[in-house]
Design a protein that fits this description.
Radius of gyration: 30 Å
Number of strands: 26
Structural class: alpha+beta
Helix content: 25-40%
Largest sheet: 6 strands, antiparallel
Low-confidence stretches: 199-207, 379-389, 460-464
Length: about 625
């Protein structure tokens, strides 16, 4: 049944894409011969408004046949044909397909956020010591702190809900806050009195007071003998500082000033073992291409562009131009969808519990600065150990599953597989899949006792799944229509950014291409169904965004390629050339591109089927 849902979802997305083309074409006054749902033999059809609506046997998409799409058609020159319509009308008809997919994803996101709500991890109380502020108001181990004064406690910008709770207490202006506690499935409201703040303290006492911008650190990776880099006496690990006396802020800076080699030699300054070394890159001889590139590796870095007077950042000794590399010896990593400025501000929550060591680079020196502890929040939670609630607990055992056969029960807390700890369902699935060729030992907690189970595994695809549903370890918070629309727009944009950056990593060689065709998509979609209907809808919206994004790529035979040729034809007209020149080129390019894309689709489908059968 899950596979059927997946096939219907994929087919529906393609139909909606074609419906976008259809509605736009009709709105622009174009004649549409046929709007088909599915492919293959015709099951049912009827005619209305000059269009034949057809239901076909294979529901894996659909198509729209607009009059005069190709020059060879009899009605290609008619006013109500595609080629006979004004350029702006053709543009609208082409663009409407991807737009329909974007609108579909946007509406699905709105439904998810307004009906199911936003998933939010709980701040889980692990331990409460006697005499602490929370102990006095009755907070107990196992309690989950859901809200502070009607504000949901949720992690964001890369930090967890337990630190978000501390930050909310620190920034509270009233002397007393109301905590909403979830205990044994029931909610309780308790009042917490906050310690008095210093009257001289400023409102933004807990703010970091810095602004950051993104740079890239470039250094040389493995250098091959007899390569251009070796001849220039460059070494592995050299970090690029300047080129042509310009500070290198990223790959774009290096590439921009490297072009100067076409006229003259260019000086390159690198940092090697704490010392600055300057090498001269020779000029490129006239008429020759510059193929002597350096084997560069890049890493995003945070550079402070502003430090406010009197701020926490200034108290720590931060200065404009400092590169922040780490926090408590942990590398500062980017959180997708958020700026580095927001990521840095999130560190404040950590300094409510303890001072933080910031690893920075200032000029040529590596420094360690201390972000001082601010005790306002820590006083409230002294003696309380807050931990994120991360565990895999069985809520339901599916009939006939491996979990049923080995004796798993609802309430079992899965802790280890072959001695390796598991905290999330994703970790469990990864470990099971990696051990699909042999039995594994599953360690679990049942009613306070440790129980071990031998789980037989099979190499057959899909047999590594145990067959149970985990207990959700997150809260649900429904959003209003306005908030849902904002979140939906943000999510749609962020998915596009991720797809674009993923393509960049593939073409730059940082990642390997892992393409999936219809068979793979259907398989992944039916797996998403198992995690809940909202998971399924989220995955469907992601596929819809992928369909829109890749259809807009400037590749012949795709919508993006058609748009490029449409603009090219207008340029041809400006130069007074014949229109049929552009049309012929487009036709040839479309045929070649279609053959290549079809061949790629067959190869991808073969790989998908191979992975399904052999794992």
């Amino acid at each position: 049944m899950n596979i059927l849902y997946a096939i219907l979802a994929l087919g529906l997305l393609i139909v909606l894409h074609e419906a976008g083309h259809f509605l736009a074409a009709r709105w622009c006054g174009m004649k549409v011969h046929e709007f088909a749902v599915g492919f293959g033999p015709k099951i049912f059809s009827f005619e209305a408004g000059g269009t034949t609506y057809t239901l076909r046997a294979i529901f894996l998409g659909g198509y729209v046949r607009i009059a005069g799409m190709h020059p060879a058609e009899e009605d290609a020159g008619e006013p109500d044909s595609f080629l006979g319509s004004a350029p702006w009308k053709r543009f609208v008809a082409i663009l409407a397909g991807p737009v329909a997919n974007y609108i579909t994803a946007f509406l699905i996101f709105i439904a998810i956020y307004s009906i199911w709500g936003v998933r939010t991890d709980y701040a889980h109380v692990k331990e409460v010591k006697g005499g602490s502020a929370l102990a006095k108001i009755g907070v107990k181990p196992g309690d989950q702190i859901v809200m502070v004064d009607k504000t949901v406690v949720k992690g964001q910008f890369g930090y967890g809900p337990e630190l978000a709770f501390l930050q909310m207490l620190s920034s509270a202006e009233s002397p007393e806050v109301t905590l909403k506690i979830l205990r044994d499935g029931k909610q309780h409201d308790v009042k917490l009195s906050l310690p008095k703040k210093d009257a001289k303290s400023k409102k933004n006492k807990m703010e970091l007071g810095v602004k950051a911008k993104l740079h890239q650190k470039l250094w040389l990776k493995e250098i091959k003998p007899d390569s251009f880099a070796a001849k220039m006496k460059l070494q592995k690990g050299d970090r690029l500082l300047k080129i042509a006396d310009h500070k290198i802020e990223g790959l774009h800076t290096y590439l921009r000033y490297r072009k100067l080699r076409k006229k003259d030699a260019v000086k390159l300054e690198v940092m090697r073992a704490g010392k600055r070394v300057v090498v001269s890159l020779p000029a490129v001889k006239k008429g020759l291409k510059d193929n002597n590139d350096l084997p560069l590796k890049s890493e995003d870095i945070v550079v402070l562009s502003e430090v406010k007077p009197g701020s926490l950042g200034q108290a720590a000794g931060l200065q404009v131009g400092d590169q922040v590399l780490s926090v408590d010896k942990k590398p500062l990593k980017r959180v997708k969808g958020y700026s580095y400025e927001e990521r840095l501000k999130s560190l404040l929550a950590g300094c409510a519990k303890k001072p933080l060591k910031l690893g920075i680079v200032r000029g040529d020196k590596d420094l360690v600065l201390t972000l001082p502890q601010k005790k306002e929040a820590a006083l409230c939670t002294q003696g309380v150990d807050l931990k994120p609630l991360v565990r895999v607990v069985v809520s339901e055992v599916l009939p006939g599953s491996t979990a049923k056969k080995v004796g798993l029960r609802p309430g079992d807390w899965l802790q280890r597989i072959d001695g390796q700890s598991i905290h999330k369902i994703e970790e469990l699935l990864t470990l099971l899949k990696a051990r699909s060729y042999r039995p594994v030992t599953l360690t679990l907690m049942r009613q306070g006792k440790i129980v071990k189970k031998k789980v037989p595994m099979s190499k057959k695809a899909g047999d590594w799944k145990l067959g149970f549903r985990p207990v959700p370890i997150f809260a649900r918070h429904r959003q209003g229509l306005g908030a849902s629309m904002k979140l939906a727009a943000l999510q749609t944009w962020q998915f596009n950014v991720r797809i674009w950056k993923g393509l960049q990593r593939i073409f730059s060689g940082q990642d390997k291409a892992n393409l999936t065709g219809p068979v793979g998509i259907v398989n992944q979609t039916q797996q998403a169904v198992q995690f809940g209907f909202d998971y399924f809808l989220m995955f469907v919206s992601l596929i819809s965004i992928h369909l829109a994004f890749f259809n807009l790529l400037p590749i012949p035979a795709l919508d993006g390629g058609r748009i490029v040729f449409l603009f090219a034809q207008q340029v041809i007209r400006l130069f007074g050339w014949k229109d049929d020149v552009g049309v012929k080129i487009e036709t040839i390019a479309n045929v070649i591109s279609f053959v290549l894309l079809f061949g790629l689709l067959i190869l991808i489908t073969f790989n998908d089927i191979y992975r399904l059968i052999f794992g």
